[in-house]
Amino acid sequence: xxxxxxxxxxxxxxxxxxxxxxxxxxxxxxxxxxxxxxxxxxxxxxxxxxxxxxxxxxxxxxxxxxxxxxxxxxxxxxx
Length: 79
Fold this sequence. Notes:
- This protein is an all-alpha fold and 79 residues long.
- It contains three helices and no strands.
């Protein structure tokens, strides 16, 4: 199966993608998602987050947390 521009193996057209997902759901095919790559990226993200948290002062962390909470609350009000 040809790969997409980002290396994805699922078809770009809607019908082909629906058929692929149905086959995965029924067990006819296996999902070719590479778990090792995604877990490695997640691990690197955690390391970066810890390094950033060490670098910030408690006041800066509190300000970032307040902004994030405000965005979450505003998003919930919109829905």
